[in-house]
Amino acid sequence: MTVDQFVSLDGGHVGVIEEGQTSGPAVLLLGNAAASMLCWEPVVPRLAEAFRVIRFDFLSSARSTHLAGRYDIPTLARRAAVALDTLGVSRVTVIGHSSGCTIAVALAEQRPDAIVCLALIGMGPDLDAKIPERLLFRLSLTRFPGRLLWRLRTGASIRKAAGSAFTRPVDIPVAFVEHMMGITHRDFVGAMRAPLHYLGQRSLPDRLAPLGLPVLVVFGAEDQRWRSSSAAAYRAVPGARVELLHGVGHTPMMEDPDTTGSLLLDFAEAARQTSDGS
Q1: How many domains does one find in the chain?
Q2: Nearest to 120 by CA among 29, 59, 43, 56
Q3: Taking the model in full, what pTM does it have?
């Protein structure tokens, strides 16, 4: 089953793709608001064997309309909650990647009773875990010369910039490049800054600890964007499980989809069974 549709939100709409078991338990996949949903493609088939897999496309110019204030993480989480309500989803396993983890945690803070469990992939627990960005990337977030650099971007420059997300060789889909070419500079800057603001207010382990939810943290040992050693901080969350994947970078679901898919599926299945039995 694959359903590609739009869900109305705040006077606009957001693109939604559903795959897998129509009547099965729901899994929501969340990436950075500016990231393409294609990043999840390698693990979707595995998850879709047992779950109703849902992906949102918050900012794509082709799939979502302008939504005021869309960069704020709590606002994105609220919109995700409304979209889930519209889809008839009352209980969901949430899996985040990179700064999409901040949306996942914010959703859990807002709707703890609706969350079966949380899996966080490649996201540092706090700002101290962030590896400094290259100068060109930092410049791209400025008004000037950021806007000029954004106008001058090419498919080759986008592929080069995405290289820090991977340690293992990964074929970057043409559609991923097209997605990034279609995003405005304002959207890109907002999507990059909002998660850091959210993280600066309070660390993710501090936010997760009082929720009492099952938590899985997956980190690539060779991550070039967040220090993998920081994953140990998540052990402060009661019952949290931390998995470090050696030889893998910032995007485990693309670099090692077999291992990552198995970890996510086993974790989600175990949490669901525990939830159903409670």
Answers
A1: 1
A2: 29
A3: 0.94
